[in-house]
C-alpha cells in the first residue's frame, strides 16, 4: 500500500503541474469524466497524450461523436504502422481516422522537469496561421515557452540509445558529441528521404536539436542502454510505462540478473528472450513476475545449473521453454510441475544431463535432449508423452540404452551419434506415424529385416556414416511414401532392389562413399521417380548404365571417384531429364561415340581428372543444351574439328581444358561455338604461340595461366582481345607489359611472372578494371600513383611477394574505391608509411604481414580510418597487442582477424572489445605468444561462433582458467593449430588433457613436444597416471587402449565474472585480467 500511495502522489504531482501550465483555470473542470465520448463531444481542441498503439481504437470511438470543426494536437512521439510495411506519422493517423486537422507538439520536455516548473521550451507544428496563435496561447506559460513552425516531428530516440552505449562503455564526451552529431545528420537524411519538403530550420527548434540533446543526456532510452553496458543488469524502472509490451528480447547483453520488479512492470509480456547471457540462477520471484501471460521463455546459452522444483507453477499460457546450452545436470519429476497441460516445446539440449526421469507433460509436442550425457532412458521417461511428435536424442552416449518403446505419436526421431551398435526391430515397431528418422554417425553394422516394418508414413531415412556391411532383403518393404534414403559413408558392397518389395516414391538416394562394385538389375527399377542419385566414391570398374535407363525423372547423377575405365556407346543416352552428370576422378581412357546421345536436357558434363587422350567427334552428339563441359586434368592434345558442331551442341558457354597437353588452342573445334562460348580455361598446358584471334575476340573470360607463352602471344592477347572481361596470365613468363588494349576488362591476373615495373600508360585503356593481381613478380619501385589514377573503379589489388622496398603516402593514391588489398611477404620492405593508407577508407579486406626487414609497423594509425574492414590479417611488430592498437569497436563489420609476427609475445585481455557478429575467425599465427589470458574471449558476444587458429605460435599449454572459459562456451569456440605449438606434456598439462577427453570428437589434435620421452605423442593418448605430480614420470609413456569417457556431473570449470576487461592504454606490457575474476571453481580430477 505504501508503494501504491507513493505512485498515486507522484502521478497527482504531474496532473497538478500540468494544470498550472494550462493556466486558464476558469476552463479547467475539477471533475474527471470517465467517458471519452462525453468528455470530447463539445471540445474545440482535442489534445492526444496516450500510447501510440491505442490511437486507432480511440479514433474509431470518437469518430462522428465530436464537432466537425474540432482540431487536434498530438503530443505522441514515434510512428505508427501504415499499409503494408510502411510507417505513418501519428498526426496523420489521427487526421485519417477522425477526418480532422491534427497538429503536433514536440520538444525538449522531460516530464519530471516540466512538473517541477523548470524552464523549458517546446515546438508546435501547425500550418494553419489562424490557429497557430490560439494553440500557442493555450499552452504557453512563463516557464514553458512555445514556438510555432509549419512542421514538427521527432526521431531522436535511437540516437539516445547510441549515446547510452557510449556512456556505458566510458568512451567520453568527445565520442558522445560525435554520435549526437552523426545522429542529427541521420535524422535530417531520414526526414528528407521519407518526408521531402520539410524545412531544415525545423531541426534547430526545440523539437529538433534541443530534444535530441536532452534525450541523449537525460532520457530513459539513454539510461537503460547505459545500464546494459555498465552492469549487465536491468534497472527496476527500465520498463516503466510499457504495460502493453508483449515481446522482449535481451539477448547477448552479458546480463547476470534481471530484477523481478522490472518484469512486474510488463503485465502483458508474452515472449521473453534472454539467450546468450550469464544468468546462473532462476529465482522464484523472477519467474513468477512473468507468469500471467508468458508463452515463450528463452534462456539458451546461459549458466543455469539448477531449476527449482515447482518453479513454473501458475503459468497458464507457457508453451515454449528453451534451455539449451546451460549447465543443468538434473531434471527431476517436479522440475516442470504446473506445465502439465500447457507446455508444447521443451529444449534442454547440450546441458550435462546424465539421467532424466518421467516428464508429466501430457501435451508436449517437441522434446530436444541432444548433446547431453545420457546413458540410458527409462520407460518412465515417456510415460505421459502421448502427443510427442519431435524427439531429438542425438549426441548422447546411449549405446543402445533406449526404452522398450517410443511414444507412438512420433513423426520425427533423431538418434544420430549415440554410439548405437545394434538396431533392434522392436525399437520402431509402434511408430506408425513416423515420417523421418535419423540414425547417422553410429556404429551399426547391419540392418535386419523388419526394422522399418509397417512404417507406412516414413519419408526420410538417414543411415549415413555408420559401418553397415549388410542390409537384409525386405528391410524397406512397404515404404511406399519413402522420399529420401541416405546410406552414404558405410561399407556396402552391394545394393539390390530386393531390399524393397514394391514400387516406391523415392526421389533422393545417396550411396556415396561405400564399397559398391556391382548392382543388381533391380537396384533402381523399383524407384521410377528417382531425381537424384549419388554413387560417388565407390569401387565401380564398369557401370551397368542399362540399370538406370528406366529412371526418366533422373536429373542429377554422380559417379565421380570410382574406377571406371570406359564410357560405352549409348551409356547415358536417352535420359530425357538428366541435367548434371559427374564422371570426374575416375580412370576413364575413352568415351565412345553417342555415349550421351539424345540426353537433351544435359547441361553440365564433368569428365575432369581422368586419363582421356582422345575424344570422338560424335562424343557430344545430341546433347543440345550443354552449357558447361569440364575436361581438365586429362591427357588431351587435340580435339576433333566437328566435336562442337551446332548440330550437336547449340550454345555451350564454358569449356575447361586446363591441365592437358595442348600446344595450341584447338581453334577449329572451338570456332563452332564462337557465338556462345563465354568462358575458356586452358591453363597448365604447353601453349607457346597463339593464332586464335577469332575465338579470343568473342570469349569474355580467358585463362591461359601456367603456359610458356612467347612475347608475340602475350602482345597479341593484350593488344587484340578487346572484348575480354577477365584474363588470367599468371605464370606465363611475362617480363614486360605494354599497354593493355581492353576497355571492358574487369579482372586481370599477372601473378607469378618476372615483371619489374609497370608503366604509366599500361592501364590507360582499362578504366573498368576491378581486380588486379601482380603478386609474385619482381616489382621494386611501387610509386604507381600515375598508373592507378586511370583505374577509377579498382576494388581488389594484390602486390604480395614482390621486391618492394618502400610504400609511401603516394603509393595508393587514386584507389579510393579499393575494397581488398593484399601486400604480404614483402621480404625487402624496410618502410611502410602510416599515411600510405589514408585514401583507402573503403577497404574491407587487408592482408599485410611477413616483413622481416621492417622495424616498425604503425598498426594503430593505419587502421584508424578503415571503418569498413571485414577481414584483417596483419603483422604486429610490438611485443604485445591490445584494444588500443586494434580498436575493434571502430570496425563493426570485422569477421576475420589474424595477428602474426615473431615479435608478438602477448595478447591483452581487452584486445577483442568491440567484436560483434555471428561468426569470428581469430588467428594467432606464427607468433611468440606462449599463453592466452583467461579473459581473452570475455568481450566476445556469447552468441558469436569463434574459430581460433594458433598455428605456429609458442603455446606450451592452455591454462585451467582459459579451459574453464572454453568449457563454459561449449560448442561456440573451436581451436585449431595446437599441434603446431611446443606443448609441454608435464604434470601441469592434466587440465588440457582432461578438457580434450571431455571434448570427444570435437577435440583438436595436440602433439607433445616436451618432455623428451613424450615427444611426438598425441596428448589424448596418454592416461591420467601420466600427470600425477607427486611421483617421477615414467620414461615410457603409458598409452590408453580403449577409453570411454563421459563428463562428470561434478565437473564445474565455470567463471563468474564481475565486470568486463577495461581498455588499457599501455603498450608492450602483458596485462592478464584474470585478477578480475570473482570466483573460479575447477574440478577436473
UniProtKB/TrEMBL annotation:
<keyword id="KW-0732">Signal</keyword>
<keyword id="KW-0520">NAD</keyword>
<comment type="pathway">
    <text>Phospholipid metabolism; alpha-glycerophosphate cycle.</text>
</comment>
<dbReference type="InterPro" id="IPR008927">
    <property type="entry name" value="6-PGluconate_DH-like_C_sf"/>
</dbReference>
<dbReference type="InterPro" id="IPR006168">
    <property type="entry name" value="G3P_DH_NAD-dep"/>
</dbReference>
<dbReference type="InterPro" id="IPR001611">
    <property type="entry name" value="Leu-rich_rpt"/>
</dbReference>
<dbReference type="Pfam" id="PF01210">
    <property type="entry name" value="NAD_Gly3P_dh_N"/>
</dbReference>
<keyword id="KW-0677">Repeat</keyword>
<dbReference type="GO" id="GO:0005886">
    <property type="term" value="C:plasma membrane"/>
</dbReference>
<keyword id="KW-0433">Leucine-rich repeat</keyword>
<dbReference type="Pfam" id="PF13855">
    <property type="entry name" value="LRR_8"/>
</dbReference>
<comment type="pathway">
    <text>Lipid metabolism.</text>
</comment>
<dbReference type="Pfam" id="PF00560">
    <property type="entry name" value="LRR_1"/>
</dbReference>
<dbReference type="GO" id="GO:0005975">
    <property type="term" value="P:carbohydrate metabolic process"/>
</dbReference>
<dbReference type="GO" id="GO:0006650">
    <property type="term" value="P:glycerophospholipid metabolic process"/>
</dbReference>
<comment type="similarity">
    <text>Belongs to the NAD-dependent glycerol-3-phosphate dehydrogenase family.</text>
</comment>
<feature type="domain" description="LRRCT">
    <location>
        <begin position="981"/>
        <end position="1030"/>
    </location>
</feature>
<dbReference type="InterPro" id="IPR011128">
    <property type="entry name" value="G3P_DH_NAD-dep_N"/>
</dbReference>
<dbReference type="InterPro" id="IPR032675">
    <property type="entry name" value="LRR_dom_sf"/>
</dbReference>
<comment type="subunit">
    <text>Homodimer.</text>
</comment>
<protein>
    <recommendedName>
        <fullName>Glycerol-3-phosphate dehydrogenase [NAD(+)]</fullName>
        <ecNumber>1.1.1.8</ecNumber>
    </recommendedName>
</protein>
<dbReference type="InterPro" id="IPR000483">
    <property type="entry name" value="Cys-rich_flank_reg_C"/>
</dbReference>
<dbReference type="InterPro" id="IPR036291">
    <property type="entry name" value="NAD(P)-bd_dom_sf"/>
</dbReference>
<dbReference type="GO" id="GO:0141152">
    <property type="term" value="F:glycerol-3-phosphate dehydrogenase (NAD+) activity"/>
</dbReference>
<dbReference type="GO" id="GO:0051287">
    <property type="term" value="F:NAD binding"/>
</dbReference>
<dbReference type="InterPro" id="IPR050541">
    <property type="entry name" value="LRR_TM_domain-containing"/>
</dbReference>
<dbReference type="InterPro" id="IPR006109">
    <property type="entry name" value="G3P_DH_NAD-dep_C"/>
</dbReference>
<dbReference type="InterPro" id="IPR013328">
    <property type="entry name" value="6PGD_dom2"/>
</dbReference>
<dbReference type="InterPro" id="IPR003591">
    <property type="entry name" value="Leu-rich_rpt_typical-subtyp"/>
</dbReference>
<dbReference type="Pfam" id="PF07479">
    <property type="entry name" value="NAD_Gly3P_dh_C"/>
</dbReference>
<keyword id="KW-0560">Oxidoreductase</keyword>
<dbReference type="GO" id="GO:0046168">
    <property type="term" value="P:glycerol-3-phosphate catabolic process"/>
</dbReference>
Amino acid at each position: 500500500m505504501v508503494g501504491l500511495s507513493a505512485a498515486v502522489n507522484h502521478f497527482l504531482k504531474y496532473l497538478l503541474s500540468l494544470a498550472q501550465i494550462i493556466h486558464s483555470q476558469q476552463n479547467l473542470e475539477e471533475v474527471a469524466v470517465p467517458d471519452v465520448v462525453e468528455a470530447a463531444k463539445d471540445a474545440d481542441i482535442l489534445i492526444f497524450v496516450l500510447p501510440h498503439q491505442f490511437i486507432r481504437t480511440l479514433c474509431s470511438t470518437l469518430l462522428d461523436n465530436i464537432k466537425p470543426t474540432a482540431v487536434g494536437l498530438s503530443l505522441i512521439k514515434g510512428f505508427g504502422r501504415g499499409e503494408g510495411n510502411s510507417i505513418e506519422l501519428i498526426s496523420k493517423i489521427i487526421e485519417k481516422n477522425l477526418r480532422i486537422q491534427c497538429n503536433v507538439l514536440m520538444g525538449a520536455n522531460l516530464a519530471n522537469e516540466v512538473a517541477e516548473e523548470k524552464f523549458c521550451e517546446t515546438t508546435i507544428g501547425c500550418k494553419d496561421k489562424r490557429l497557430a496563435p490560439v494553440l500557442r496561447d493555450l499552452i504557453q506559460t512563463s516557464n514553458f515557452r512555445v514556438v510555432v513552425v509549419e512542421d514538427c516531428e521527432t526521431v531522436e530516440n535511437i540516437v539516445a540509445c547510441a549515446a547510452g552505449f557510449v556512456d556505458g562503455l566510458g568512451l567520453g564526451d568527445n565520442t558522445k558529441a560525435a554520435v549526437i552529431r552523426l545522429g542529427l545528420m541521420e535524422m535530417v537524411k531520414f526526414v528528407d528521404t521519407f518526408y521531402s519538403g520539410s524545412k531544415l530550420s525545423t531541426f534547430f527548434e526545440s523539437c529538433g536539436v534541443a530534444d535530441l540533446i536532452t534525450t541523449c543526456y537525460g532520457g530513459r532510452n539513454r539510461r537503460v542502454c547505459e545500464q546494459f553496458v555498465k552492469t549487465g543488469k536491468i534497472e527496476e524502472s527500465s520498463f516503466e510505462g510499457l504495460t502493453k509490451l508483449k515481446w522482449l528480447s535481451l539477448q547477448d547483453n552479458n546480463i547476470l540478473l534481471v530484477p523481478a520488479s522490472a518484469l512486474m512492470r510488463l503485465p502483458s509480456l508474452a515472449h521473453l528472450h534472454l539467450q546468450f547471457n550469464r544468468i546462473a540462477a532462476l529465482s522464484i520471484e523472477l519467474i513468477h513476475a512473468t507468469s500471467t501471460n508468458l508463452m515463450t521463455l528463452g534462456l539458451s546459452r546461459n549458466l543455469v545449473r539448477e531449476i527449482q522444483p515447482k518453479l513454473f507453477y501458475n503459468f497458464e499460457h507457457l508453451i515454449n521453454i528453451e534451455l539449451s546450452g546451460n549447465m543443468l545436470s538434473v531434471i527431476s519429476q517436479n522440475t516442470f510441475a504446473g506445465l502439465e497441460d500447457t507446455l508444447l516445446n521443451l529444449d534442454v539440449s547440450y546441458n550435462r544431463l546424465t539421467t532424466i526421469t518421467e516428464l508429466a507433460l501430457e501435451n508436449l509436442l517437441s522434446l530436444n535432449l541432444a548433446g547431453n550425457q545420457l546413458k540410458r532412458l527409462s520407460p518412465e521417461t515417456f510415460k505421459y508423452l502421448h502427443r510427442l511428435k519431435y524427439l531429438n536424442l542425438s549426441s548422447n552416449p546411449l549405446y543402445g540404452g533406449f526404452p522398450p518403446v517410443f511414444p507412438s505419436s512420433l513423426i520425427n526421431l533423431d538418434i544420430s551419434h549415440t554410439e548405437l551398435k545394434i538396431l533392434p526391430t522392436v525399437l520402431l515397431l509402434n511408430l506408425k506415424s513416423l515420417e523421418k528418422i535419423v540414425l547417422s554417425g553410429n556404429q551399426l553394422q547391419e540392418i535386419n529385416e523388419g526394422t522399418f516394418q509397417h512404417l507406412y508414413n516414413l519419408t526420410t531415412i538417414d543411415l549415413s556414416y555408420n559401418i553397415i556391411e549388410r542390409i537384409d532383403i525386405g528391410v524397406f518393404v512397404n515404404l511406399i511414401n519413402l522420399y529420401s534414403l541416405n546410406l552414404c559413408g558405410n561399407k556396402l558392397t552391394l545394393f539390390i532392389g530386393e531390399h524393397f518389395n514394391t514400387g516406391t516414391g523415392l526421389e533422393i538416394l545417396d550411396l556415396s562413399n561405400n564399397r559398391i562394385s556391382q548392382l543388381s538389375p533391380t537396384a533402381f527399377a523399383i524407384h521410377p521417380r528417382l531425381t537424384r542419385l549419388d554413387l560417388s566414391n565407390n569401387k565401380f570398374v564398369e557401370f551397368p548404365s542399362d540399370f538406370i535407363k528406366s529412371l526418366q525423372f533422373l536429373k542429377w547423377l554422380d559417379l565421380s571417384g570410382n574406377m571406371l575405365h570406359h564410357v560405352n556407346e549409348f551409356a547415358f543416352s536417352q535420359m530425357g531429364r538428366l541435367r548434371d552428370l559427374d564422371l570426374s576422378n575416375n580412370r576413364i581412357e575413352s568415351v565412345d561415340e553417342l555415349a550421351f546421345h539424345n540426353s537433351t536436357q544435359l547441361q553440365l558434363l564433368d569428365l575432369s581428372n581422368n586419363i582421356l587422350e582422345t575424344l570422338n567427334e560424335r562424343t557430344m552428339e545430341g546433347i543440345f543444351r550443354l552449357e558447361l563441359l569440364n575436361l581438365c586434368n586429362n591427357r588431351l592434345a587435340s580435339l576433333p574439328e566437328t566435336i562442337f558442331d551446332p548440330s550437336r551442341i547449340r550454345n555451350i558457354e564454358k569449356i575447361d581444358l586446363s591441365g592437358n597437353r595442348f600446344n595450341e588452342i584447338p581453334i577449329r573445334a572451338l570456332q563452332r561455338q564462337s557465338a556462345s562460348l563465354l568462358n575458356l580455361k586452358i591453363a597448365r598446358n604447353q601453349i607457346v604461340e597463339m593464332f586464335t584471334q577469332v575465338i579470343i575476340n568473342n570469349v569474355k573470360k580467358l585463362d591461359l595461366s601456367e603456359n610458356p607463352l612467347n612475347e608475340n602471344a602475350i602482345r597479341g592477347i593484350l593488344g587484340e582481345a578487346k572484348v575480354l572481361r577477365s584474363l588470367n596470365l599468371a605464370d606465363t613468363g611475362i617480363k614486360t607489359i605494354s599497354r593493355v588494349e581492353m576497355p571492358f576488362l574487369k579482372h586481370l591476373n599477372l601473378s607469378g611472372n618476372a615483371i619489374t615495373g609497370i608503366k604509366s600508360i599500361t592501364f590507360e585503356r582499362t578504366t573498368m578494371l576491378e581486380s588486379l593481381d601482380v603478386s609474385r613478380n619482381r616489382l621494386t619501385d611501387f610509386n604507381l600513383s600515375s598508373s592507378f589514377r586511370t583505374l577509377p573503379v579498382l576494388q581488389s589489388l594484390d602486390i604480395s611477394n614482390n621486391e618492394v622496398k618502400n610504400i609511401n603516402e603516394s603509393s595508393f593514391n587514386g584507389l579510393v574505391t579499393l575494397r581488398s588489398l593484399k601486400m604480404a611477404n614483402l621480404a625487402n620492405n624496410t618502410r611502410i608509411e602510416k599515411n600510405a593508407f589514408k585514401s583507402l577508407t573503403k577497404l574491407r579486406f587487408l592482408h599485410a604481414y611477413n616483413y622481416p626487414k621492417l622495424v616498425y609497423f604503425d598498426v594503430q594509425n593505419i587502421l584508424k580510418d578503415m571503418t569498413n574492414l571485414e577481414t584483417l590479417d596483419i603483422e604486429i611488430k610490438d611485443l604485445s597487442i591490445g584494444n588500443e592498437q586494434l580498436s575493434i569497436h571502430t570496425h563493426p563489420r570485422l569477421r576475420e582477424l589474424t595477428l602474426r609476427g615473431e615479435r608478438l609475445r602477448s595478447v591483452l585481455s581487452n584486445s577483442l572489445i568491440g567484436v560483434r557478429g555471428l561468426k569470428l575467425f581469430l588467428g594467432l599465427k606464427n607468433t611468440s605468444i606462449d599463453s592466452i589470458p583467461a579473459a581473452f574471449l570475455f568481450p566476445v558476444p556469447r552468441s558469436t561462433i569463434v574459430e581460433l587458429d594458433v598455428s605456429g605460435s609458442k603455446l606450451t599449454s592452455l591454462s585451467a582458467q582459459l579451459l574453464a572459459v572454453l568449457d563454459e562456451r561449449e560448442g561456440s569456440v573451436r581451436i585449431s593449430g595446437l599441434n603446431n605449438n611446443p606443448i609441454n606434456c608435464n604434470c601441469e598439462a592434466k587440465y588440457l588433457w582432461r578438457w580434450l577427453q571431455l571434448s570427444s570428437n570435437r577435440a583438436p589434435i595436440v602433439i607433445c613436444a616436451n618432455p623428451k620421452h613424450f615427444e611426438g605423442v598425441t596428448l589424448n593418448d596418454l592416461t591420467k597416471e601420466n600427470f600425477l605430480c607427486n611421483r617421477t614420470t615414467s620414461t615410457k609413456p603409458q598409452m590408453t587402449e580403449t577409453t570411454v569417457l563421459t563428463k562428470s556431473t561434478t565437473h564445474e570449470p565455470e567463471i563468474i565474472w564481475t565486470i568486463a576487461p577495461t581498455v588499457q592504454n599501455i603498450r608492450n606490457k602483458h596485462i592478464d585480467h584474470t585478477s578480475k575474476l570473482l570466483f573460479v571453481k575447477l574440478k577436473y580430477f
